[in-house]
Amino acid sequence: MAHFISWTVEALKKYPSRPLFKEYVDSNDSPEWISVSYETFLDDLERSAAYWVQNLSELEVKQNDVVGLWITGVKYSDLAHIYGLARAGYIPEVLGASLTIPIIRDLFAKTGGKTLLFEPTFANLVTDFELPSLAIPELGALPAVTSPLPPLPDVAPTDPGLIFHTSGTTSGIPKPIPETHRWIKCQAQVLWPKTWQCYPDGRPLILNNIGSFANIGSATSITYLSWSGHCMVKTSKPDFELDEFLAMLPQGLNALFLYAPWFSKLLNIARVNPTVLAALQRMGQINYTGAALNPEDEIWATEQGIPVTALYATTETAITMVTPLAEKGILPAMRLIEGLDYKFIPTKGLDHTDLDRDSEQRVQGGQLFDLFLPAEADNCPHHSIRNRPDGHITGDLFEEVQPGLYCFRGRNDDWIRTGKHFAFCDTKSIEDHVLTSCADLVRNCVVVGHYKPAVVLFVEPVNPSGDDGVLKTAVLERISSFNARLMIHERVTTPVQIVSVPSGSLPRTKEKGNIRRKAVEDEHSDVLKEIYANIEV
């Protein structure tokens, strides 16, 4: 199979003068952007490739070796270096700014990383890194390409082309997610075109990025933008402000890709701001993801003629479901993207009352399903991370509300979404660590915080008559080193995030006696509301 960068490069050549990217420029007056053409990006990519071929060859790094790229994720140049490394024949392992050297060591132990390329501002953090490390140069400092780049290496369809990571950690380590060459091609050439259903006349989309270039959604943008001839407008942050949204309109913004919480805020503004409402109505399509909207938002957006579609995607599988734009009034229902071999399989042993509160309120009493991707599916994840011998299930639950229409109904495992941007958090690894490190203090515990700004730890103490303040301080001290390895949104770092309750009082399942996370949140909703009102994210 052709290396994914080979057809990406050819696609970039099709639209040399079109804008591929609009780089956000920080300005004191108003937001501004600098346009980058397809031709310019291709030149930047190739100059980056030539630079890394020369410098990594001297370190005896070979094609198809894994090379860590530790970036801020906020600069256009980050994209040029990701794709430059790929064009040089290496496998970029993209590392975000929130990671630390100890975590990168652990990741390299799993992925076989040979060297670390780092953002220059991280230089003081890599002084004791055992493997070779090089600072990432500024694009403007790279010389022109004076000799042909080396041929791309031979690859199999299921070989990794890029490596990303989960937004949460398992026992303090993010899970590496290798994206295979066939996966990347499927995302760019099948999933992306079928996701965006607007503008059948072929005009290019001009849409915002969704998150950091160290994360898969935005980092893989070049593959699907180049294939489709589209353009991305870089925002200053994922939850950009209203003035920035309005300033993007003269840049040609005609589609939006948003996380549900920010889209909900934008809809609230549109209710009282006719300019914002008109701008949303003029969009070709607005895709939201990451969570369900409030039912009131879904109804109001539909009534106002705003072209809204829900989207379901994961780091492991890319986009798999989207709302048909032509079918009005069906939000948040979605259909499987056509042409791929997926199927829904009934979920066993899960009661509706075990779902999170929002999902339980929405569920209509029907059978719940897992989404299964067989190993042969082009966007089935790399074999190293599949959770079934014959394929992969996503871990999310769905209900069929009309024939072929499915709604998201929460998760079937111990992962929740939490923090400012509702990233994943593995609650079980935190609970296990507390129970292990605080065995003489805590009899049982549970972590809650699904779609909340932070996690909260409920504990049943061994000594019910002890001082709560002393208990909380002791627990925080014992888990401090573990906390340091977690993403910020997963950490329990203040006494306010610990709630002590009487032994045996946390609600449990009847058969196995497991603590019911969702029921804890419901039962202690007033306590949690007060905690979240006084916590800084």
Would you write up a description of this structure?
It is a single chain. The protein has 537 residues and is of the alpha/beta class. The protein has a domain of 119 residues: 2-Layer Sandwich (GMP Synthetase, Chain A, domain 3). It is built from 17 helices and 24 strands. The strands form 7 sheets. A 5-stranded mixed β-sheet has the order 11-12-13-14-15, with helices on both faces. It has a 4-stranded mixed β-sheet with strand order 2-1-10-9. Strands 4-3-5-6 form a 4-stranded parallel β-sheet, sandwiched between helices. The longest helix has 20 residues. It is globular, with a radius of gyration of 24 Å. The model has no long low-confidence stretch (mean pLDDT 92).
Topology:
Layout: H1 4-12, E1 19-25, E2 32-37, H2 38-57, E3 66-70, H3 76-87, E4 91-95, H4 101-111, E5 113-118, E6 133-135, E7 160-170, E8 173-180, H5 181-195, E9 206-208, H6 216-219, H7 221-228, E10 231-233, H8 242-248, E11 255-259, H9 260-270, H10 274-282, E12 285-289, H11 295-303, E13 308-314, E14 318-322, E15 335-336, E16 343-346, H12 357-362, E17 368-374, E18 391-402, E19 405-411, E20 415-418, E21 423-426, H13 427-437, E22 442-448, E23 456-461, H14 468-478, H15 480-485, E24 498-500, H16 517-523, H17 525-533
Helix pairs in contact: 1-7, 2-3, 5-7, 9-10
